[in-house]
Amino acid sequence: MPALTADMDNESVPLLSSDNSRTSLQGRPGYTEPFDSPEVQNFLRGATPLPLVTESKQSPPIIASEPRKQSSLVTIFVLWNTMVGTSLLAMPWGVERAGLIMGVILPIVMGALCCYTAYCNVATQAAYGPAGGEISELTRHMLGPRFEFLSKLFSYIVLLGALIVYWILMSNFLYFTVDYIYTATTGGFKDIDTFELTGSEICLVDQVKSNITADLQPSVFKQIWNLGTVPIYLIALLAPLLSFKSATFFTKFNSLGTMSLVYLMVFVVVKALSWGFNLDLTNPSSVHYSELVQPSFFATSGTLAMSYYMHNIIITVMRSNKNQRNNARDVAVGYGLGTGTYLIVGSLFYISFPLAKTCIEDNMLNNFASWDVLTLVARMFLFFQLTTVYPLINYMLRYQVMTAFFSSPYPSLLHVLIFNLIVVVSCVLFAVFLPRIGTVIRFTGAISGCFHVFTLPCLLKLAGQKQSGELSITSLIIHLAIPVLGFVNLVAQFFVSDS
């Protein structure tokens, strides 16, 4: 998931450029620079070798006026690392929702479309945008303050969606980790080889059906520790981390994002090799039968809109590219690598999964029993990573909202506590009553993607062409058709199911 943007997975975005270039904008009431916080920049920058931002305790952050440029190779890695995040866990489910053929076609088509619209932002900024401006400044410059407001609003939605997904995942990972420890210490695994590569697969649909009659009197531990209570317990761990004025500490764990992605890919490859080929395209009665196309494929397109969401940070990423003439190529390669990663993980897991394809969960780790050691390591690794990312994403959202409404990133402790309360309660409610990351990701992606991915880049492109006298009927038709596709994708989310 991103961004980020608000990308549920924005572990690596380069530094912003000179603040001198946007001096004229800073005096405007309600103006915010979404990524001018040094802590946020250090987090987003990730592995890119750019200079640090310094901050005086009595003055605003000072941004280096000439940020060091980076090679195309580093830029491409940043694009890939930023794009591919926790939504990777939902890719096998996305293939199941779309069907085998559509599950391969959709990531390619959506990846190409998102790549094009992302580059529209980069090209429009380079040709017509204010020097050193970000997407919000470009939007105001080309389309006016109303569209700038919408640009910020949908960025907030993406950040909040990411926080909700993270809370659901952290609750899930914490529950299964503690459940493993409890069961292991009480001798529950004495007859199980927890290092066996196969045999740990489960189908939650069948498990729920059996639990209805099998466990009418759960143990005291199960009553206290379950997926409905853990999201509440998680408040005690995370709440103290959300009110700091600075989030510098949490930026020190940037590399965990890349390590988690690599582990998940290795995890899927190892499991797939141990399972073998389990796919039947001809016999509907086979447990391994797969449809080529499913009518619920819009659930996948909504998820992909979030998975490819980089549009409100792509200008920042590409500004630090050493050779600006390579921007088009580097954006294409970065999106190509992201698409390839999604295809490999999603398709490989789907084709090899040994149970019915309808059993595949929107969090693929839910398809494994708690005693599976490889899955346990993944859950523990991801839990620690998300506990360091969540406070920083919350900080990013708080910084933007507080600066927009109160002209200060930290107006008072009371303001911050009220803000944190609203965010945390929202996250807990989703984690308790709608703990499905697929649902949250696809709706967040479809809602924000409708504006940031499909509509805004096309309007910016058309505005630039009109300004330069290059607007044609063909371009007008194409760039008005793309927002229509985004709107159809959004509306369709209300008519498809998650299972």
From TrEMBL:
GO terms for cellular component: late endosome membrane; lysosomal membrane. It is found in: Late endosome membrane; Lysosome membrane. Residues 15-26 have a biased composition (Polar residues). Pfam families: Aa_trans (PF01490). Its main location: membrane. Residues 69-469 form the Amino acid transporter transmembrane domain. This is Amino acid transporter transmembrane domain-containing protein. It comes from Homalodisca liturata.
